[in-house]
Specification:
Layout lengths: L2 H12 L30 E2 L2 E3 L13 H29 L3 E6 L4 H5 L6 E8 L16 E6 L2 E11 L5 E13 L2 E8 L3 H14 L3
Antiparallel strand pairs: 1-2, 2-3, 3-4, 4-8, 5-6, 6-7, 7-8
Helix pairs in contact: 1-2
Length: 208
């Protein structure tokens, strides 16, 4: 594993969920044997979060040379992860685009072991299919919902903040299709309504 991939993996275990939500492929559209689809270019920002590779390390507090170099390795690893994920999906769906976005303002905290809001955007050709991240059986911590016109799967985990207040951490997947292209967001650390809004932002930012 390269040093860039190692750095990215280190952040993943502490704060970022680089692989997206388990079960993403369930219900994605099946593609014709010889698709001719021009997928949109994914935007640099989605839902107020920034693509990892576009973040200026100095602007988010990585001011010394070692810190900048470490973050550049992380960004390179994130780019490589995105490319590998897109290639794997393209084998199934004919084409794919993947990009990860994070809350740049929280990166310092994340590198110290804190949590960070994240969106993984995925685009493939075809009409959106059934969305059931963890299957059809709902529970108190797993719901299939329609949020602002989008089909979403919502996983929640209860906990307590540093001040002792009860809180919930959400992992949400929302999906839609526009003009024969499916747009999917897998989010971590965002409220369900914000995840749905991020999907709208992805579609608009992609020029659909």
């Amino acid at each position: 594993m390269s040093s860039a991939r190692s750095s990215a993996a280190g952040i993943a275990t502490g704060a970022l969920v680089l692989a997206g939500i388990v079960g993403f492929g369930v219900g994605l559209p099946k593609v014709a044997a010889d698709p001719v689809v021009a997928l949109p270019t994914l935007p640099d920002e989605v839902g107020g979060l920034q693509a990892v590779a576009t973040i200026d390390p100095e602007a988010v507090g990585f001011t010394d040379a070692d810190a900048r170099a470490n973050f550049e390795q992380v960004a390179a690893g994130a780019d490589e992860n995105d490319a590998e994920a897109a290639d794997a999906l393209a084998e199934q769906y004919g084409a794919a685009a993947v990009r990860m976005y994070v809350d740049a303002s929280a990166l310092q905290e994340a590198l110290s072991g804190g949590s960070i809001a994240q969106v993984t955007a995925t685009v493939v050709p075809g009409e959106a299919g059934l969305l059931m991240t963890n299957g059809p059986y709902q529970a108190a911590n797993y719901q299939l919902r329609e949020i602002d016109g989008h089909h979403c799967a919502v996983l929640s985990r209860s906990g307590y903040s540093a001040t002792g207040e009860e809180s919930a951490t959400y992992q949400v997947e929302c999906r839609t299709s526009v003009d024969g292209v499916t747009y999917d967001v897998s989010t971590y650390g965002m409220a369900p309504e914000d995840a749905s809004a991020a999907l709208d932002d992805l579609v608009a930012g992609s020029g659909a």
